[in-house]
Write a structure and sequence with these properties.
The protein has 171 residues and is an all-alpha fold. It is 74% helix and 0% strand. It is globular.
Length: 171
């Protein structure tokens, strides 16, 4: 049941990210709702759910925008990283997961900047780093209400069947 709930929450985030996000930016600084939702799912469900959900959502964005593998790799790494750090350190409060999301979103935003560097594009690096930090700060600020809502929705869930029965077990 939780998986269906997460898919139903990811679909509007995908729609926003693919169609509307470009219209709600100011000088390239905007909110990445999909990254925020994936980070919250990875904290609530675990690193495997975050990685699979990030890969699937990134693959849909890759098909939409025509970048082969770029978004799939970014969102999969974000979901997996946030989930692994949460499992390792058991972040129960709100502030620590928000700071984790800040770091993960900043790392995700750095990938296109590094790509522009190797493509020899003329970029103002001070502005690029400021943009990365502002985008990550907006994502971390939006993470708190999204995470609280998703945590409350997962508590109401009655069925606790696991999609991946091997998750959390040693091979």
């Amino acid at each position: 049941m939780r998986v269906i709930l997460d898919i139903l929450l990811l679909l509007p985030a995908l729609l926003y990210q693919s169609a509307l996000a470009a219209h709600f930016t100011y000088r390239g600084v905007g909110v990445d709702l999909l990254a925020v939702l994936l980070a919250s799912i990875a904290i609530n469900q675990g690193w495997l759910y975050g990685a699979v959900g990030g890969f699937a959502a990134g693959l849909i964005l890759d098909c939409t925008f025509g970048h082969i593998g770029l978004y799939a790799l970014q969102y999969m790494a974000l979901g997996m990283f946030v989930g692994l750090v949460n499992e390792r350190f058991r972040l129960d409060a709100i502030v620590l997961p928000a700071l984790l999301t800040l770091g993960a979103c900043a790392a995700r935003e750095i990938v296109p900047a590094v790509y522009l560097y190797f493509a020899r594009a003329t970029v103002s690096w001070g502005y690029a780093l400021l943009r990365v930090l502002l985008c990550a700060a907006l994502d971390a600020a939006l993470f708190v209400p999204v995470h609280l809502l998703l945590r409350r929705l997962h508590r109401w869930d009655v069925v606790r069947a696991s999609l991946f029965p091997f998750h959390g077990r040693k091979w």
